[in-house]
Amino acid sequence: AGKMFAITGWRLGWAIGPRQIIQKLHGVCLVDTFGCPTILQEVVARMLERERLLVDPKESYFNWAGSIFAENYTKLCNAFKSVNMPPVHAEGGFFLVVDCSKRSFKFQESDEYKNCNDAQDVKIAKELTKAIQDSYASP
Question: DSSP secondary-structure letter at 91?
Fold first, then answer.
């Protein structure tokens, strides 16, 4: 909702306290990135109501945004299919899950990747970015 309504800064905050409490708070913040503050929930509810009452459904921001999301979802699914990682289609949710069981990764076989100091997820991201670019560049 923060990005959809351009109110991303509403998650900002700060805390002051003893080191051991701040360390624990920092740990909570690392895993609580998808939480939604109460005030933001209220604002979103009001925005949805306002949109419903004031906007012709044909001109609705949500219809426009939904069509953009659907178009991007299709592009992303096609990109993953092109590198042998078919999407696992869901009926809702925010993330796209792909089946990578059929794909072999170069970093598992290649000395170039084995000797690289990057973490495994970084190696996968770099390899997939290149593979997807190559698959779209080929005729």
Answer: S
Closest CA to 76 of 62, 95, 57: 95
Contacts of 36 (CB under 8 A, 6+ apart): 1, 44
Residues, the chain, total?
Answer: 139
| Matching residue, tokens 């921001």 | 61
Angle at 60 between CA 54 and CA 61, to 5 degrees: 110
- Contact criterion met (CB below 8 Å) for 126 and 118: yes
pLDDT band (50, 70, 90) for residue 139: very low
| 98 three-state secondary structure | strand
Q: Identify the H or E element spanning 32.
A: none
pTM here is: 0.57
